Structure formats: structure tokens, C-alpha cells
């Protein structure tokens, strides 16, 4: 996962791979889930589907020799990165969903 975090910032990585890697890393490293884990089944389903599918896609878009270099760089890190941008994005999505639900409820 940390290699994908590096891939999102590396200038050698193609733009499409950067976008996918950045989105997956931000989501996986975010302290907030799109669907909270306390919701039965659905809370863990997003972690079981979204993250692996995003990792698979990002790895397919990055050349093999480049991902090997990024993995070596990730192994050299001592601290685990935190994605505040990912947390902000998920919070904005939750607020938008809440607003939509509130507007739909009050319009009836």
C-alpha cells in the first residue's frame, strides 16, 4: 500500500496510474471509511472489494520495474503515512449524502 502512496507522487508513473494509486492509497490510509464498519456486512464489504480492486488496477497500470523500485523505497520508510486528503474526501461524501437524504426527507 505504501508503494502505491509513493506511486501517486512519483513523476515516472503515468497519470492514470497516479490517479488510481492516489485514490486507493487515500481511501485505504484514511481513518474514515466510505461505509462505516459498524454497519453489518456492508461496512466490511467496501474494504474487501474496493481496496483490492483498486490495488490490482493500479499495479496493472504501473510498469513492473517501476513498481519494484517503489516497493524498495517503501521498505526503506520508517513511518506509516496518513492521508488527510482521503479523510476530507470521505467526510465531504458523507456530508453530501446526508444533505441529499435530508432534502429528500423534507421535500415530502
Number of domains: 1
What is the ordering of alpha helices and beta strands? HHHHH
**Overall radius of gyration:** 16 Å
Number of helices: 5
Shape: elongated
- N- to C-terminal separation? 45 Å
Poorly predicted residue ranges: none
> Strand fraction band?
under 5%
Number of strands: 0
Secondary structural class: mainly alpha
Task: Please characterize this protein's 3D structure.
The protein has 108 residues and is mainly α. It has one domain. The chain contains five helices and no strands. The longest helix is centred in the C-terminal third of the chain and has 23 residues, at 84-106.
Describe what is shown at a glance.
The model has no long low-confidence stretch (mean pLDDT 83). The protein is mostly helical and 108 residues long. The radius of gyration is 16 Å and the shape is elongated.
Looking at this protein, list some descriptive labels.
single chain; 108 residues; mainly alpha; 5 helices; elongated
Strand and helix layout:
Layout: H1 2-7, H2 15-29, H3 42-61, H4 64-75, H5 84-106
Helix pairs in contact: 2-3, 2-5
Amino acid at each position: 500500500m505504501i508503494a502505491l502512496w509513493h506511486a501517486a507522487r512519483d513523476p515516472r508513473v503515468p497519470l492514470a496510474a497516479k490517479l488510481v494509486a492516489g485514490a486507493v492509497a487515500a481511501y485505504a490510509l484514511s481513518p474514515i471509511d466510505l461505509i462505516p464498519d459498524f454497519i453489518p456486512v456492508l461496512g466490511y464489504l467496501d474494504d474487501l472489494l474496493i481496496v483490492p480492486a483498486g490495488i490490482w488496477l493500479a499495479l496493472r497500470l504501473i510498469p513492473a520495474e517501476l513498481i519494484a523500485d517503489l516497493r524498495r523505497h517503501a521498505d526503506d520508510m520508517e513511518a506509516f503515512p496518513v492521508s488527510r486528503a482521503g479523510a476530507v474526501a470521505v467526510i465531504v461524501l458523507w456530508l453530501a449524502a446526508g444533505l441529499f437524504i435530508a432534502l429528500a426527507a423534507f421535500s415530502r
